[in-house]
Amino acid sequence: MAISSLSFACRPSFPFRPSLFHRIQKVRFSSVAAIKTLDVQENVIKGNSRNLGDFKAPEWRKLSSKELGIGNSLISGPTKKVLNGLKKKGYEVYLVGGCVRDLILKRIPKDFDIITSAELKEVVRAFSRCEIVGKWFPICHVHIGDTIVEVSSFSTIGRKFKVGLRNDIGCPIDCDEKDYLRWKNCLQRDFTINGLMFDPYKRIVYDYMGGLEDIKKAKVRTVIPANNFFSRGPCSNSALDKPRIMMEMNYMLAYGSAEASLRILWKFGLLELLLPFQAAYFVRDGFKRRDKRSNMLLCLFSNLDKLLAPDRPCHNSLWVGILAFHRALVDQPRDPMVVAAFCLAVHNGGDILGGVNMARKITKPHDTSFHELTKPQDLDSEVLINEVVDFAASVKQVLSWMTDEHYVSLAMAEYPQAPYSDLVFFPLAVYLRVCRIFKCSKEGPEKGFMPKQGRKIDYEMLGLGRGLQEVRHTFARVVFDTVYPLN
User: Fold this and answer.
1) Own/partner pairs, 445-450, CB within 8 angstroms, 24+ separation
2) Quick one: which of 247, 320, 243 has its CA closest to 277?
3) According to the model, what pLDDT value does residue 325 have?
4) What is the CA radius of gyration of the chain?
5) What pTM was computed for the model?
6) Full set of structural domains in the chain with CATH
7) Is the peptide bond before 12 cis (omega within 30 degrees of 0)?
8) Are 91 and 122 in contact (CB under 8 A)?
9) Between 476 and 225, whose confidence is greater?
10) In this protein, which residues make up the domain named tRNA nucleotidyltransferase/poly(A) polymerase RNA and SrmB- binding (predicted)?
């Protein structure tokens, strides 16, 4: 599928933390083998073992990165520039989270998270192209060429999570101030294997949560005791860090591994908690936990993955929009011509009449394996226009449901064995942005609409969400590559 500057080109016949989860009736949490095993040499520099009631805190370890086989060669160039820039100004800098885990496993991380002793305002002053993003969980986006490097601050996290943690886990003993700051930050991680911190200058890996031992055993274990992690009752609602959940979901769906991430979430029973509407679709589709088959939702995200990469992410409004678009088709399957006309209208600034005229030229057959698409009918223009208007309204309605706790809680209601979830983590700004993306009218394109020039994706515009046309263009490509596959 190729998309040109003003229309679709054809080929050949187509013209154109704590807790993420809450209120679960019954949870049995056991460590899950999710990563390959690794032999780690026990080069322990310092260790403390503490018993806190029924919870035994893990032994602290500071290990030489050389003994773990970690070299700085796997750290991306833009990440090194940010690390060096902050280090030269006298700040402490560390790599933290999943990238450290990947380095230990000899994998190339898809993204690098940096945490520093600098205040975010000091990070902004250190780089010419840098801004603070996020209201509830602010971080810095540092622009190095076409790459965005995310930097968080110990001070920000300390202010946000200063309540309750010392009482929940216990204050560490015999540690200096830097140890305490690192340890406190690691408490905010979801799983122990993501609670590792790496100083690339001292070449030390800090493990306060027992993550290395869990990597050796190929286990995934929560940082805090499972009975606290999977808590029940209204108190857990106030403890939810929804911006952090949104950020983690964006890492999974916006960087080129969305299909695999959705399969993993489904496999381990987490999709029901995070995306209940999509989980209900899997259940109704008879999709088993380890199913190797595909479906339309997975195909949509597979085609999105082909356009993205760790250094070429999309804005979160794109994957949220795809979720809403697909759910609307699940609720009411549509004629392929209606879907095509809607997507062409979206691509062309909401111009329904233009989208309908372009869609009528399509001769390529659609994928008949998707039950979300009905058998094609010979719809006249007036009927087709009305169908597109109705479909656009249904997508907006689904988006509204996805951001309403009441409707989210009902998504899995017909499956009494499913865990209860009314979790809504999409911020209002994303909801409003997706509504703008899908705004369609019979009156022509929106005011000020500028058609996209060329087929090449501007990944800086797509990642930052500046303007809507790049997101609309990519959305249309993904849908057409799914509904009208080349092969």
Assistant:
1) 445/348, 445/349, 445/350, 445/351, 445/354, 446/349, 446/350, 449/348, 449/349, 449/350, 449/351
2) 320
3) 98
4) 24
5) 0.62
6) 2-18+245-483 (no CATH), 50-229 (3.30.460.10)
7) yes
8) yes
9) 476
10) 241-280
